[in-house]
Each structure stands twice: as structure tokens, then as C-alpha cells.
Amino acid sequence: MEKRQLGNTDLHIYPVAFGGNVFGWTLDEKKSFEILDGFTEVGFNFIDTADVYSRWAPGNVGGESERIIGKWMKEKKNRHDIVLTTKVGSDMGDGKKGLKKQYILKAIEDSLQRLKTDYLDLYQTHFDDVETPVEETLEAYAQLQKDGKIRWIGTSNMSPERILASLQASAAKGLPRYETLQPHYNLYAREKYETQYESLALENGLGVITYYSLESGFLTGKYRTKEDLGKSPRGGDMDKYFDERGLKILAALDEISNQYKATPAAVSLAWLIQRPSVTAPIVSATSKSQLGSIIQAPELNLDAEAIRFLDKASAWQL
């Protein structure tokens, strides 16, 4: 397993990132520590979270994931072994959201405190704030870089037009430049990224770290019928995938999985890892068996025929 450079940064990561949205939601602190231990013990080093994780869970207020990760890093004394990223811009309640400079300067202090660290390797715009000029947001990041609180910046859930405007502002005004893009992309959800973002990422040297890399569990193959929807908290919305294309993708995954003696999840992640524009998929696990698929994926070298087979089965073009 070889490290990959993340865009034009000096960050080098193994080609899977762990998604911290499950911490404080479907995983309690003890189980979160076990999964983080399992992920890092085999060499992975990239952990992705956000200030808003996991505010949506009953009784939560946001920041739960950051607190768990911070406590774990403090206990393990491994902060400098981890490439750590969190995000800003989501609605934290009580009017706390957006990308205005003063809000970002306050929000990062809260994140750093929860994460028990004094710097972030990567700080990402989570959701765009179209009421705020891109220059103001980038000026906030410039201040944070100057203060040594962040090293690099990235973006997610921003239109191609606003990303381009940001890149142009960075070049014109000497402001920090988005070096990474975090899009929704996987074997099922292909069209938006491939038509709107992929060329933008390649042309500008952006490191691409994909979210919903297993489409909320659909690409693991555990949901086969509508009767399977109660298998996890994410299952309730899964019936939308049981169309002709979704079933075709599952059948293709079964075939390649059997051929390579791997799980459908590992094959799905390997397909992403081998995409020319993708640096690393972000994926979560809530059990050691799920973690096994993540660990297997970077070592699963799909041949050109397998890639073509999966491409054809998941084709979105009419």
C-alpha cells in the first residue's frame, strides 16, 4: 500500500480516509476507539470529520465526532501520525453557520478545542455560503494559516462556478487556494461528479476525497430487497436504489467480488481508488468486519476488464 500526495499539498495519505460521521451516532466512544485503533494499526492515517457531526442524532448538539477523535488522539499520543481534517460552514444551530470571516475564526477555535490539537492539516468549506464573497472566506483561511492553525484548505458541496471563482481569487490576490475537493461520488452516483467536477479537479490539480463512497451502504450489497431496509439506521431511504440500474450494479459487484474473492464493498472502493481523478474515498465502518473491507480495498488491483465491466454496469448515460 503506497501513500498518495493529496493534491498539491505536502500531505501524503494512504488511499482510504476514515469518515468520522459515525462517531457519537451509530458508534459510542468505546466502539469508536476500537474502530480508530483498527484503522490506524494497519497503517491508514487520514481521518475526516466536521464540526456538525453528529448533530442530527437525538440528544446531540454537534461536535460529538470531534470530541471523540480528540480524546482518542490524546490517549494514543498520535496526533503527528494523523492527517486530520474537519470542516466549517454547516448549521450548528443558534444561527451558527456560514463562511463569514468572523464566524470561521470562532468556529475553528471550537473545533481545535474539541479535537485537542492546535492545528489542522486540512480545513474544509463544508457547505457554501453564497451570501459571503469568496474573498472574505479565503481571507479568513489566510489568517488561520498565518496563525499556524491550519496548513491547507479544501472545499465540498460548492458549485463548480464558485470553486472556479475561489481559485481565481486565490491567484489574483495571493490568498490560500483550495487544494482538495470532497464530492459525492461512487459507483452508483457518477453523473454529477463526472459531468460537472472531474475535469475541474484534474485541470486544477485538486486532490479528490469522495464522500458517500459506498452510497450509504447500498454498495456493500447488504441491502438486496425492501425487507433488508431495517438492517441499519441508514436503511430507511434505500428503496430508491432498487431500480434496474441499481440491481445491475449489485449483480456486477457480485461477479467481480467472486472473481477476486473480495467483498462488494472492497470492490466498490477499489473501483474508486483506481479512478484517475480520485486520491482517496472516505468510508466509515461500525464493525471489525466492515473495517476488513476497507483494509482490503487498496490491495485489490482490479484489471482493465473488471473496471470496464463495472463501468458498463453502472453507466448513467442513456
TrEMBL record:
Species this chain originates from: Flavobacterium microcysteis
Protein name listed in UniProt: Aldo/keto reductase
GO cellular component labels: cytosol
Residues annotated as domain NADP-dependent oxidoreductase: 16-313
GO molecular function, one term: oxidoreductase activity
Pfam families linked to this entry: Aldo_ket_red (PF00248)
PANTHER family: NADH-SPECIFIC METHYLGLYOXAL REDUCTASE-RELATED, OXIDOREDUCTASE-RELATED
Tree of life domain: Bacteria
Keywords, in A-Z order: Oxidoreductase
Gene3D superfamilies, sorted: NADP-dependent oxidoreductase domain
